Amino acid sequence: MRAIATEVGVQAGALYNYTPDKQSLLFDLMEGHMTELLAAVPNKGAGAEGRLRAFVGFHIDFHFTRQDAVFISYMELRNLTPENFARVEALRRQYEDRLEQILRDGVDEGVFAVGDTKIATLAIIAMLTGVTTWFREGGRLSLEQVTAQYWDMVRRAVT
Amino acid sequence: MRAIATEVGVQAGALYNYTPDKQSLLFDLMEGHMTELLAAVPNKGAGAEGRLRAFVGFHIDFHFTRQDAVFISYMELRNLTPENFARVEALRRQYEDRLEQILRDGVDEGVFAVGDTKIATLAIIAMLTGVTTWFREGGRLSLEQVTAQYWDMVRRAVT
DNA sequence: GTCTATACCCCGATAGAC
DNA sequence: GTCTATCGGGGTATAGAC
User: Fold this and answer.
1) pLDDT, tens digit, 9 for 90 and up, residues A49-91
2) What is the mean pLDDT of residues B136-141?
3) Is the CB of residue B14 inside 7 Å of nucleic acid strand C?
4) Which of A21, A116, A152, B26 is most exposed by smallest CB count within 10 Å?
5) Residue A21: how many CB atoms within 10 A of its CB?
6) Which ranges of B9-66 does DSSP label H, i.e. alpha helix?
7) Which helix (H) or strand (E) holds A107?
8) B91 touches chain A (CB under 8 A)
């Protein structure tokens, strides 16, 4: 709280005019992040493969442009009350379900071949989110090039 | 430190007969973990594909049986001094290089097709390590079944 | 080697003046 | 709405008796 106060140029006590406590601040941040994510995730496209491609591009871009929120959401997750934790987890599961539905549809269409769609979902999300931990602009490759290779690997992994 | 002391049945002050401070304790734990990892990672096998398969199985098993160390290593990484952080990171990079060498060899052999081997390395490790965050024994699938599907996805992603 | 006691610091949060 | 001052609690680490 003191760090936030310094950052915005007030004293620590003054923050409590805007939030009842740190827990609420943390929860509002995470819930807002997840709500934005769910509102922005694409769900249209030509066929399961097109939708998966859109999902991969979206996930990398969204998380890269919000690295701070992603980092905080992960590191502070265990500081939430059990109720708040459960609410954030429920939103996260909703997001996973979006990807799993694409995979299921692809299997039904006969264009994808995955053993268990839930495992494939978690594997893909872990792989994509990992980009935020090492990618920095100005490096050897552009985010577009990185995204292209990730899409290529994801496509082959489920095709 | 108080939690550790309670766990082992002594008072907090008594721990300082075994470690000069918390920083050393943290660093020794992480360095030990990484050294074990590097000592245990398999490097032999029939061809790049066989070596990759062995790597996948090893990585999942090693990290699953050491979930606590993996969790601490990640959460406490930023509490290391810059020097200790750099040393742990160097070990981590050595481990990544083991996987990347397998991918490079596979490309040379003509059995793998990946754009950038470094990106593929990071993608695969992120995907595999993710298993530790959700897998619990007694669930719908055994660790062997999960490992089999991950290997299938990894194989297809790079083939 | 372990204990009790405590120093010192940082944290979240509150009280009350302005 | 913001300030200063402070409370209560937790943290790491140390001192000194046994």
Assistant:
1) 999 999 999 999 999 999 999 999 999 999 999 999 999 999 9
2) 96
3) yes
4) A21
5) 11
6) 22-40, 47-64
7) helix A82-109
8) no
Contact: A127, B129; criterion CB under 8 Å: no
User: What single DSSP character describes residue B44?
Assistant: -
Closest CA to B98 of B58, B129, B144, B158: B58
Question: Can you tell me which residue has the tokens 């993608």?
Answer: B123
Of A75, A77, A105, the closest CA to residue A91 belongs to: A77
Spatial separation of the C-alpha atoms in residues B77 and A71, rounded to whole Å: 13
Q: Please give the DSSP secondary-structure letter assigned to residue A109.
A: H
Report the sign of the C-alpha dihedral through residues B99, B102, B106, B107, in that order. positive
CB B126 within 8 A of CB A129: yes
The reply to whether B156 has its C-beta less than 7 Å from any atom of strand D is no
- Other beta carbons within 10 angstroms of residue B70's beta carbon come to 18
What's the pTM value of the predicted model, to 2 decimals?
A: 0.96
On the question of pLDDT at A102 being above 90, the answer is: yes
C15 C1' closest Cα residue: A13
| Cβ–Cβ contact B107 with A under 8 A | no
Q: For residues B100 and B118, is the Cβ–Cβ distance under 8 A?
A: yes
Residue A134: alpha-carbon gap to chain centroid:
15
A52 at interface of B, judged by CB pairs closer than 8 A? no
Q: What is the pLDDT of residue B45?
A: 83
Confidence of residue B44 (pLDDT cuts 50, 70, 90): confident
